User: Fold this.
Amino acid sequence: MSPTDSPSPTSASPGKSRTVIQAPPWLARLLTPIMARYVARELAAKNPGLSAAQIDAKMRDEIGGLPSAEQSRFIDAVVAKLPQEEIIVERPVSAWILVAANVVPLLGVLFWGWDAFALIALFWMENVVVGVFFILRMLTLDPRDPALWLGKLFTVPFFCFHYGIFTAVHGVFVFGMLGGRKYEVHSLQVLEPAARAVADYGLWLPLAALAASHAFSFFWNYLYRGEFRRQELSRLMTGPYQRVVVLHVAIILGGIAAIALGSPLWALVVLLAVKVGLDYHAHVREHSKK
Assistant:
């Protein structure tokens, strides 16, 4: 049963009598996003070989006639939440902007005398930026779905607390162990040594470039291309952790090796290339199919 005065286009077969319960318009508007998300998940599971356009046509055919305005709106809401068929895209434009943003740290390595610690500190700061944009993703996720807002009331504050602690502990390791006594961390107060590192190495420009890259991806991929309609709140909550674990384990291990070698130029270029390669691959994998 759809949330309007008409039955669901995926329910009983044509020709059978149905009991229609008419819902008030306000209740229909309230329930439409909730039911559309559920129906989209069920249809995607039952019809793995069908594209969103084919499921759209199938739902309209099952009505047995011209769908009403309410039925059309419900079908459109379901289709908007279906996983989109894979589109062959050479590369999302945001991936090239991500690569361009990482050219600025390369300039620091080649011309500004950066060492391995400067790169690792910069990439830790980028994690903070990533966390901010994941909070924005969660807040703007399918804003017409009231059930999601109930989930956000718990998820967003919990994410802010948990990811904040996670990032602070990570920062203690970066600044306290790799930065030496100059960037010693007291308790979990990492903002002061981070600000000192920004001033000492001139990290404002590369940090702004990386933040601009993530901002472009948020507005282009997530909002403009409609990813906010199809994402899951639980996946958004775990997304930044996957990036930190995979990317920063490689970076920190490489950074320790570079520091042990005395931060030679070739080792820093290799470290930066590893970071860009992993970042680029993850970005393309996430956004090419949306």
About this structure: Residues 5-18, 86-90 have pLDDT under 50 and may be disordered. Residues 1-85 form one domain.
